[in-house]
Amino acid sequence: MTGLYAGVDLGGTTIKVAIAAADGDILAQDQVSTSSHLGPSAVLNSMGDVIGRLKSQIAATSPLIGVGIGVPGLVDIETGTTKFLPNLPTQWRNIPVGAILQQRLGCPVRLLNDVRAATLGELRFGHGKREPQLTMAFFSIGTGVGGGVALKGDLWLGPLGAAGELGHQTIVPDGPRCGCGNRGCLEALASGTAIAAQGVRLMRSGLAPALHALVDGNADRVTTREMTAVADQDPLVHEALVDAAIAIGIAAANVVTILHPDLIVLGGGVAEMGTLLTDTVQDVITCRVGMFPTDQVRVERSLLGEQAGLCGAVALAMKAAHT
Ligand SMILES: [Zn+2]
């Protein structure tokens, strides 16, 4: 069946939309401000507007046959209803997003947590493209730490679509409090937010002169990227990055012990740490998994980068149309 697919990545600040052909080629793409303060109805209206506008730009005669939406939180995947989007005003409890957009757009609409969608994207269009039987764990390490798991080429979602929350495994039993209520989660130790906080602390203590010079002493400009850029000059910044990478490595080693995957994929802004991250994670896996050889377990950065979520939403749109 010929037709077009729309993928939507709903974020706290922007809505990204892509229209794709049957082979997954993105034909048109745009993003608008979420303006989440206006409430779910206004956000969904604006989402429908962007999809309609992009579609009319490319081929008015080809019908839209599936829509996939990645959302930042918990969703009922059967009904397409949002359950809890912690970072959006009103938290979108029980909003029938799928039904509302299906009525407006006239085709099946499917919802999925955004990082599970990114995992699906990596599976269909990234590392999994040439390995259809891939078993993989995806860590999306940005403001928070999300995750997703694929077993032999299929996304593993569990009954609530919540399986694969890799960022909320305990790494340090009495560690810092996490947003989920637990203590010492990976997210509390090694999210982009947690890493930047360490960088700012070092800078303000006068222990990171190169970082201070790079950002003109402006704490708001400190991210993993800036810290990585000065890691050779500021030893304590280097140490903070390594500590975070070790925490991510411990989390990855736990996942390796359980799944024995082919691949651990690292995405999100913290992956910009580059080989310092991937090499450390690979070393920690080697050191901590003693029950079986792990030399076949690869650790790599996402091939899709910031597009992983949007590509995954397109893959989800294909599932919506054909299953
Ligand atoms: Zn947590």
Give a verbal description of the structure.
With 323 residues, the chain is of the alpha/beta class. The chain folds into 2 domains: 127 residues, 2-Layer Sandwich (Nucleotidyltransferase, domain 5); 176 residues, 2-Layer Sandwich (Nucleotidyltransferase, domain 5). Helix content is 38%, strand content 21%. It has 10 helices and 12 strands. The strands form 3 sheets. Strands 3-2-1-4-7 form a 5-stranded mixed β-sheet. It has a 5-stranded mixed β-sheet with strand order 10-9-8-11-12, with helices on both faces. The protein has a two-stranded antiparallel ribbon with strand order 5-6. The longest helix has 25 residues. The structure holds zinc ion (ZN). Zinc ion binds next to loops. The site of zinc ion has 6 residues, from loops.
In short:
The chain is an alpha/beta fold and about 325 residues long. The chain contains ten helices and twelve strands. It has helices at about 40-60, 95-105, 115-125, 185-190, 190-205, 210-215, 225-230, 235-260, 275-290, 310-320; strands spanning about 5-10, 15-20, 25-35, 65-70, 75, 80-85, 110-115, 135-140, 145-150, 155, 265, 300.
Task: List its salient traits.
323 residues; alpha/beta; Nucleotidyltransferase, domain 5; five-stranded mixed sheet; 10 helices; globular; binds zinc ion
